[in-house]
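Hi R.,

Quick one: here's the Universal stress protein B homolog sequence you asked about.
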Amino acid sequence: MVYSDTVLFALMMVTLVNMARYFTALRSLIYIMREAHPLLYQQVDGNGFFTTHGNMTKQVRLFHYIKSREYHHHHDEVFTGKCERVRELFILSTSLLGVTLLAALIL
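And here's the predicted structure, written out as tokens:
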């Protein structure tokens, strides 16, 4: 019993740390996007992205932009590197969240 609680607690901590890394990288990407890609910054509502009154459809636009890897055609290497990092961290965070939820149900 103690072992399963420890494993679940460790999984939750790793998941939380990686989600924090993801949100930090996303915040950094939006900051860089202001100069590197101003049109996309306006399309995804850069100023209001992390606010409670943020437009969800505009936030989904950034998700599709990164998911379809449209950033590969951009000229700024810092911007494309940040987009790639956000994409990798999103995949890692969602995978860890799925494993953590599965472990919580099993244990």
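The two ends are 9 Å apart (CA to CA).

Cheers,
M.
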